Amino acid sequence: MDEKAKKLIAEAKESIESAMSLQGLEEVRVKYLGKKGEITQALRSLSKYPQEERPAIGRYLNEARETVEGMIEKRRGEIAAIELEMRLKAEEVDVTLPGKRPSIGARHPISVVYEELELIFGHMGFQVYEGPDVELDYNNFEALNVPRNHPSRDIQDTFYISQDLVLRTHTTCVDIRIMKAQKPPIRAIIPGKVYRFDAVDPSHLPVFHQLDGLVVDEGITFGDVKGVLARFAREFFGPDTEVRFRPSYFPFTEPSAEMDVSCVLCHGSGCRLCKYTGWLEILGSGLLHPKVLKEVGFDPEDVSGLAFGMGVDRVSVLKYGIEDIRLLVENDMAFNLQFIHA
Amino acid sequence: MLVPYRWLSQYVPGLPPPDAVAEALTMSGTACESITGEGEDVVFDFEITHDRADCMSIFGIAREAACVFGLELKHPDLRVNEEGPQVDELASVKIMSPDLCRRYMARVITEVKIGPSPEWMQKKLIACGIRPINNVVDITNYVMLELGQPLHAFDLDRIPDGAIIVRRARDGESIVTIDGETRELSEDMLVIADKKSPVAIAGVMGGESTEVQESTTQVLLEAATFDSVSVWRTQRALKMRTEASVRFSRGLWPENARLGLDRAAMLMAELKVGKVSRGTVDEYPGARPPIHIRLRPERVNRLLGTVIPRDEMKLILMRLGFILNERDEGSYRVIIPDHRMDVLQEEDLVEEIARIYGYDKIPATVPKGAPPEIRLNPERRFESKVGEILRSSGLTEVNTMTFTSEAVCDELRLPSEDIERGKVKIKNPISSDYTMLRTTLFVSLVDVLRRNASRQRDDVAVYEIGKVFRWHDPDSILPCERKMIGLAAMGKLEQPNWRTPGEDVDFFHMKGIIEALLEGLGIFGYSFEKATHPTLHPGRTAKVLVEGEDIGCFGQIHPAVREALGLKKSAYLGELDCEKLLRRMSQDIKVRQLPRFPAVTRDIAVVVQRGVESRRVEDKIWEAGESLVESVHLFDIYEGPQVPPDHKSLAYSITYRSPDRTLTDEEVAEVHGRIVEGITSALGASIRS
Ligand SMILES: [Zn+2]
């Protein structure tokens, strides 16, 4: 009997180990442990044996059944692992193939710069205001101390809609609207399109963008002009940026100053961009002219104000190294899509 | 303005080297734009700000430099060697329009010998960009460069009786100027005339008839103070900017006429051009007392944020030529020198002190006092949100100019009578492409499509948030400006890939982009309706409604327009009104409870006539399904042999769910039956199984 059983187990072991698929393993299981399987049959025919041998044989067969079952289970695990491995192998992809990506559009550099400026000045307590592109001559010029029919109008060549209406030459005209509508303290920035009578060329556009700023309160000083704008320059152009203020002339500020920043390209050593001066002219600024304050009903003895204005197109051109300002309005996708991560 | 270093240093002995001069003048308000040449021969190019008429000369710059460096200023030699007859015997001047001519001075040079000017003078003129002509003309130009006073030399023999009349031109009068052009004059222009007709346009250009020539023997030298506004308007009207008119337009002061005239006369005598007759004709109807301004040193420091001692302020102003008298309460009475016409109030003196003290020495501070309470600008927030959503739909932002032209409006078939009524026209357009402001973003967007197509970039999907302009309300002073969201797409929205060839944009892509935008803005009550637009395909245009309000439209570009634009691929345009969207935008979120009971989904295929809009079927499903319908999803449209001709089959997947119980099969069957009933009876539809 022992011999026979041993042989049975050895046979089963061999068939189990040679089974290469779950299907094949199942066949082996049926052969030995199925309803008509050899071990099952042997257990069923236990009665054929003499009474006294039955317990030993029975025990032995049960052990054999457990052994075979165990071997099958083990083999099942092995085969599952092999099959999984094969499937994974078959599912392998070429990770260097291009991905199927959703298309994402890019922002225009002008609005990228505007957002950054609005954020920087927002942190200093400035609020965003807007105004109309078609503006009263009064708001654009007269209230800003540029009288009608006056030679100082030569500074800004203007598009006219009618005798009294112009395409605003700066967003400073919104300063007048703000100051007429509210009382100090005022801290405002004004983004928007502005217009000058210039033909389109690599450094001029007849329509471009400006950010103007206005602070009106008691005790605003020229030192504040410097402080506010130097902080902007460092936040926008980088912490190592140097600034300098030069006397200048704007009809609506007195004293007036032009702010230069150290050249973004050569950092002051001199290059083509900064015309070998090491400095780039960035914005005009100053204390509000007393005539402007009086015009909007403020007393220059009580309050003072500061104002500044910068060309956003120029700032973008400098920030991104754009060679030709026309790229900002051409909207060639080969240009615009370079700002996908802006 | 060109300023040779060597010439400048003649008035400021001990002037530092050129680089230091350029730097110091730039930092005190006279910006040096460039330096050319080597060593002592360098020439500065200064940009003179518009208010500083007094700096429009070598001597003017010298005055600044002397002050900035604290050096002595050497004045030009004005001692005139007079001989021969009194000037009154040779010439007379009568000012008929004193409002336009504050002062008119003249001298006469007799026994004139016209010839070349000396080499040193020619060199200086050339260095400043002026071509030498002859000794008389060169001296007038030299003095203009040196002192900023334009002078004019007349051939006195060709002025009958030497009688000069300064008057307004008469309408219809004309003059041939020395450049040979005939100029038509008008009443608001000031002329210098003889007894009959104009011999010069005051402050702009002389006339040919009295021009100094080889044969000239007697010269009348004019030095005048004409009204700046008048000269400016005349030079604009005649489109002639001259060295003289530029200086007069900025403004000149009467004292400079005397300096200029004497300096020229002195040079005429010294260079032996002729004999300077005795005396000066001086008509001076516009004499005014000097201006004086109260200066409070304490206010200067208050405005600048500085602690500059009053003595330092006083010293700065005195070096600039201001005269200061002590007044009570520690203030000064400052008398403004004649040449500083730009200084009119205390703030102007503040700038004078600040710029010489040094802007760089003023400490940078932050405004004191709490900033006003900040409110986020809702429009900017809205625009930033719109941009975010559209970019995530694959659209790229563009920036276009707001100009357009009637020709582009025609190309887009925009109705001309409507454009004519609404257009905001530019009175002085810079080119025929930019004659008016756009009435729709379409004009700018097709330009973007066209430009890209011309550069072989046929796959374009863009948006712009920009203004359109229109005269709307006849009583309004300003035109109506509306911000719009413009959309344009052409070619493929997604790059073709090794897995997908990529589809060309169609109506439903555009619609999907708009739907995603609306929902991203929290606007859910929207619908679409068939519409027409002259630029768009009549069968592929829809308007967008939000709770019944028309907020914009979109559609395919009309094939005829597309052809006219030269676009190869079909393209789509859309335009939505920002203000209307902003009003309906909602960022409020109230979280709903997650569904607790299972949903049941049933499909239904509805066969209707081809012309029936799918929305009508959907409306019916929602209506008949009452509150148990959770979603309706159209998953297939079929037209073909399995449905009757001219019909279509719309296959919907309807999801049912109740918030408070698990729906039984019977309940679902009942409501589904109601829906079938509703659709078939209302739309004449049949149900396909
Ligand atoms: Zn540089």
Q: Which labels suit this protein?
A:
heterodimer, A: about 350 residues, alpha+beta, BirA Bifunctional Protein, domain 2, 2 domains, seven-stranded mixed sheet, two-stranded antiparallel ribbon, 12 helices, 9 strands, about 40% helix, about 20% strand, B: about 700 residues, Phenylalanyl-tRNA Synthetase, Chain B, domain 1, Phenylalanyl-tRNA Synthetase, Chain B, domain 3, 5 domains, about 30% helix, binds zinc ion
Explain how this protein is built:
- The complex is a heterodimer of chains A (342) and B (689).
- With 342 residues, chain A is α+β, with helices and mostly antiparallel strands.
- Chain A is built from twelve helices and nine strands.
- In chain A, α3 (38-44) runs antiparallel to α4 and α5 (109-123) crosses α10 (312-320).
- Chain B has a seven-stranded mixed β-sheet with strand order 20-24-25-29-28-27-26, sandwiched between helices.
- In chain B, α1 (5-11) crosses α3 (58-69), α6 (228-238) crosses α7 and α12 crosses α16.
- At the A-B interface, α5, β1, β2, β4 and β5 of A face α6, α9, α11, α12 and β20 of B.
- Residues 263, 265-266, 270-271, 273-274, 278 of chain A line the site of zinc ion.
- The pLDDT mean of chain A sits at 92
Shape of chain A: rod-shaped
| Number of discrete helical segments of chain A | 12
Quote the distance from N terminus to C terminus of chain B. Answer: 90 Å
- Classified in CATH, the superfamily of the largest domain in chain B is Bira Bifunctional Protein, Domain 2
Number of domains of chain B: 5
Helix/strand/pairing category of chain A:
alpha+beta
Main sheet record of chain B = 7 strands, mixed
Structural class of chain B: alpha+beta
Q: Which value, in Å, is the CA radius of gyration of chain A?
A: 43 Å
